[in-house]
Amino acid sequence: MSLAVLSFSFLLFPAILLLERLFFTENCMNKVFKILLVDDDTDTRSLYAEVFRGAGFEVTEAKDGLEGLELATANRPDIVFTGIIMPRMDGFALTEALRKNVTTASLPIAFSSHLGRQEDQKRAREMGVNDFIVRDVVTPNEVVARLRSLVAEMEYRIAFDPWSLDAQRLASDMRLPSNFSCSENDGKQFVLRMRLKDASTRLFEAELICIP
User: Fold this and answer.
1) Which DSSP state fits 2?
2) Cα(41)–Cα(29) distance, rounded to whole angstroms?
3) Where are any strands of DSSP class E within the chain?
4) Quick one: pLDDT at residue 22?
5) At what angle do helices 118-127 and 91-100 cross, to 10 degrees?
6) Judging by beta carbons within 10 Å of its beta carbon (0-12, 13-18, 19+), is residue 83 exposed, middle or buried?
7) Span 168-174, mean pLDDT?
8) 112 against 210, higher pLDDT
9) Chain centre to alpha carbon of residue 107
């Protein structure tokens, strides 16, 4: 039984949600992720390239969006980290081109901005950019963590307090027992399995599953 994609903050629901565990799949733990780093500023590109390589990423560098597009289509990376203002092709045009190509349409894309303008963030969200990172606000280590969240299978299992907040309405709407049991006398409970889709906006894809 699947639910619609949910977006919420754990801080808003302390009574109903209990974080059970967080895990990475074995393949994600062992895999070396390929990142395409696109930026026309040599110093910025070199800084992040060093940080990403130190964090275990396989890094390919491009000096502008056009070169980035050529590299992404020739050798598909696991994620693209791109600046916005660049010659020949900027970050928005690069994103548009990647989203139109069936090979790269689903690539996670993160923007690196030194301005952090609200209009840029809004446009990026509308284009399907997965994260928007303001360079002077987010540390390189935080950048690594946020990019890892986009490429790794980050999954949470959330247990319910059946009597708190909207739990009973959820049970009614989903036609579940009021105590969220899967069936009588089997000891199994419904929980939410949540996969992180966008760390910056706390967007999750959620599914109800049965566990012992």
Assistant:
1) B
2) 31
3) 6-7, 17-23, 34-38, 58-62, 79-83, 109-113, 131-134, 155-160, 189-198, 203-211
4) 41
5) 10
6) buried
7) 88
8) 112
9) 11
Q: Where are the domains of the chain?
A: 6-24+154-211, 26-151
Question: Using CA atoms, how far apart are residues 110 and 116, in angstroms rounded to an integer?
Answer: 13
Whole-number Cα distances in Å, 87 to 31, 84, 119: 33, 10, 20
How many Cβ atoms from other residues are within 10 Å of residue 143's Cβ?
20
Backbone angles phi, psi at 37, to 5 degrees: -105, 115
State residue 155 phi and psi, 5-degree precision.
Answer: -135, 140
Helix (H, G, I), strand (E, B) or coil at 166: coil
- Strand arrangement, sheet containing 58-62: 58-62, 34-38, 79-83, 109-113, 131-134
What is the amino acid identity at position 144? V
Q: What is each CA distance from 97 to 9, 86, 145, 151, 178, in whole angstroms?
A: 32, 15, 26, 20, 48
Q: Which of 196, 179, 195, 197 is nearest to 187 (CA)?
A: 179
| Tokens coding 194 | 């949540």
Cα dihedral sign, 42-66-132-143? negative
Q: How far is CA 104 from CA 63, 137, 149, 164, 207, in A?
A: 19, 29, 19, 43, 26
26-151 CATH fold:
Rossmann fold (3.40.50)
Q: Please indicate whether residue 208 or residue 38 has the higher confidence score (pLDDT).
A: 38
pTM for the whole structure: 0.63
